Amino acid sequence: MAKQVDADSQQGLACRQAQPSLANYFNISQLPAIKKWLIAALLLGLATYCLRPYFGLFLGQYILPAQKLPKEAGSQVHFQNQLLAKISPDLQLHFLKIITPDQALLDTLEISKPNLPSKNYWVFFCGNSLTYDARVLDFEKIANQTATKVIGFDYRNVRYSVGQVYSKDALIIDGIQQVQRLLDQGVAAKNITLHGLSLGGAVASLVAKHFHNQIPAQKVYLVVDRSFSTLTDAVLGKVLPELEQPQTTAHLRKIGRKLLKPFVKSLLWLTNWEMDVLEAYNQIPANHKALITAKNDTVIDYQVASLEQALIINSALKHNQALNVGKIFQIADSFKGLSLHAHSLSGLKDQQGKDMLNNLMKFLEQERVARAALLK
To answer: Which domain holds residue 246?
Structure first.
C-alpha cells in the first residue's frame, strides 16, 4: 500500500513538473530579444497613448504661453471698463461668454457701429502670446472704416476664458464655435472673414478648412497673417533660425534642422499638437483667402517656417517676384501692387493701414459680389 502511495506521489510530481507554471508564461527573460523589444515598444506606446492628454497639456503651456498671462488688476468688469475707455463712443461693445461643445468658456468681444449696421463679420484669432485687447485698436479701425462687426476672443485658459488646452483640437474647437454661433444666428458664410495672426493664422486655417469641407460647404473667407507652414517648421525655425551667418554656419544649421525634424515632428504628433497649415491653406479656394507675410519676421523664421515660403517651394507661387496678394492670387486690378509682405495693420502708419484695410475689404466684397452674380 505504501508503495502504491509513493508511486502515485511520484507520478503527480512528474505531472506538475511537466506542466508550465503561470510564472513561466510571463517570464520575459526567457523570450527572444526581438520579442522583448516588441513588448517594450507596445507597453511604451500604450503608456504614451494613455498619458497623451497630460503631455499635451504640458506642451501647450509653451505653444500657447498666453495661458500664463496674469489677469488684469481688479475685476473683469474693471477690465471691460478699461476697454470701453479706449474705444470711440461711436462704436458699440458687447462682452460675451461663448460656451463650446466641450464646455469651455470663451471671453469674447464684439464691436459694431450701431448707426451703420452691417451683415459682415470679422473674427480675429490671436497669436500665441496675445490677448484680444492688445488688438482692440485694430478692431476699432476695421469697424469704423468698413462698418464690419469685429469679434475678438481669448482661447480657453487664457485670462478670463475657462477650459483646458490639451492639444490643437482645443483651439480649433474654440474657433469653430465662434463661427458656428454666427451661422446659427443666420449669418451667411460668405459674410464671415477669419483673420489669424501667427499661431492664430494656423488655427484660423484649420477652422476654415473645417467649414469648407462641410456638405454643403460653408465658404468663409480666410486672411492668414504671418503664419507658419507646420508647427514642426516653426519650432525648428525658432531653435535653429536661418541667420545671416557665414555659409559654413548656415550649412551646419540646415543639417541640424534635418536631424532634429523627426524628433520634433514625432513629439508634436504624439501630443496631437502638429498643425499642417500648408495643407489646410491649400484646400481653401484662391478667391476665399489672402496672405500677409513679413520677410523680417522675428517670430516666424521666413526661410525656414513661413507659410509663404512653403507655398513657393511647393510651386504654388512660381515666379511671383513682387509677392503682393493681387499678383499671387490673381485678384482684382485695384488690389494689384499692394504689397502686404512688409507689415500688417498694427505695424503701419495710419494712412498706410487705412489704404491696406480698404483694399483688403474691397477685395473681399468684390469676390462676394462676383460669386453672388454666378449664383443667380
So the answer is: 63-375
Q: How far is CA 228 from the centre of its chain?
A: 10
Task: Say how many domains are in the chain.
Answer: 1
Q: Is residue 28 part of a domain?
A: no
123/140: higher pLDDT: 123
Tell if the pTM clears 0.70, that is, is over it.
yes
Neighbours of 276 (CB within 10 A): 16
Give the position of cell 474654440: 174
**Is residue 8 in a domain?**
no
Q: What is the pLDDT of residues 217-228, one digit of tens each?
A: 999 988 888 899
Q: If you average pLDDT over residues 2-17, what whole number do you get?
A: 52
Is 255 part of any domain? yes
Gap between the Cα atoms of 210 and 206, Å rounded: 6
Instruction: Tell me, yes or no, whether 23 lies in a domain.
Output: no
Strand pairing category for 105-112 and 149-153: antiparallel
260-315 pLDDT, tens digit per residue, is 999 999 889 889 999 999 999 988 887 788 887 777 777 888 889 988 888 877 75
CATH number for 238: 3.40.50.1820
User: Mean pLDDT over residues 26-35, rounded?
Assistant: 57
Sheet holding 92-99, edge to edge: 92-99, 105-112, 149-153, 121-125, 192-197, 221-225, 289-292
pLDDT confidence bin for 115, thresholds 50/70/90: confident
Most confident of 9-13, 30-34, 255-259, 297-301: 255-259
